[in-house]
Amino acid sequence: MAAIVIGVAATIFIMAFIAGQMQSFISNTIKNEISHIQMHHPEYKEEYNVSFTMNGIQSKLDKISSLENVQAVASKTIANGIISSAKASRGIMIAGINPELEKAVTQMDQNVIEGEYLSAEKRNPILIGKRLADKLKVGVRKKLVLRFQDRDGEIIDAAFRIVGIYKTNRNNFDEGTVFVRQSDLNKLLQLDDDAHKIAVLLKDEQDILQSKKKITGLSSGLLVETYEEISPEVRLFKSQIDISAKFIMTIIMLALFFGIINTMLMAVLERYRELGMLMSVGMNKVRVFSMIVLETFLIGLISAPIGMLVGYIAIIITAQNGIDLSAYSEGMSEFGLGSIVYPSLQPDAYIQVAIAVLITTILAAAYPAYKAIKLKPVEAIRKI
Length: 384
Known about the structure:
By secondary structure, the chain is α+β, with helices and mostly antiparallel strands. The chain is built from 15 helices and 12 strands. The protein starts with a helix and ends with a helix.
């Protein structure tokens, strides 16, 4: 029983830990990059050409923000180009944002670790990632040059000054994305008030498909996608995490399987004489077999709820402040994972574990029960 309790508690907690990591990855992706829903010109994602824009942006923002499940909405202008300092150059994505709207959707202002967030006062301000700043060997108040193409294909060189440096939990994002004011980038691209992307943050993710349907109805002819459609790696990560959780549960169940076999086999061997006596006075093999299986089943039936309760308590305790993995934050950032993991587990996972334990105990009882019915009563009674 102790082995089953520990095994079930470990299974519950490990599954919760993995689910917490998955949620961390998804939350970071949604918060920092893609939001719950995005809207584009239908041809924009084919070539990422700056000329494929959406017009009437303010009207679209007002209509979308009026929907019940929408928490925040913001537009972006996107350009791919090269950023250069006196020391180095890198290829990057330039995101032109409305600072006030953007911080409501992505909370980018909270990621600033040096300097300040984009403001309306300064001329051509730029916000860059910590890893990119290290690569370019620059800091706050240093000047950078952005080179990109406008909507007519002309090469544009523009000087920007660093007002802030940000850091998220996604290293690739930090190294490849810079933020400028949308008004500044639109002026250079000759786009007036157009934009390439509208990002929507929802209040309730469970209602994402219904919200997508409503937004599509407000945006005839535009491409509306959820975060799973925009970022296939999120769907892949989800499936890999689910497979990993099931794999770990299978390993622990196998360990329990052999542990139960060992325990029940010892119980049968220790009761050779008693079993032989029962069989000699008329107990048939079916009843002997059923007795061993029932005993094992009852052990699992009692132990599984205790193990799940222990696992649940461990999740509650660790979920309050999270599990601090700051020592591994650099490596985890390569995969878009946060340094603090908050274990969580859906109710149906407890049911899956309970069923798995009961099936394991019944299967594990089969071999000891088979050994019991193979006893010869005369020999068993004489056994010392």
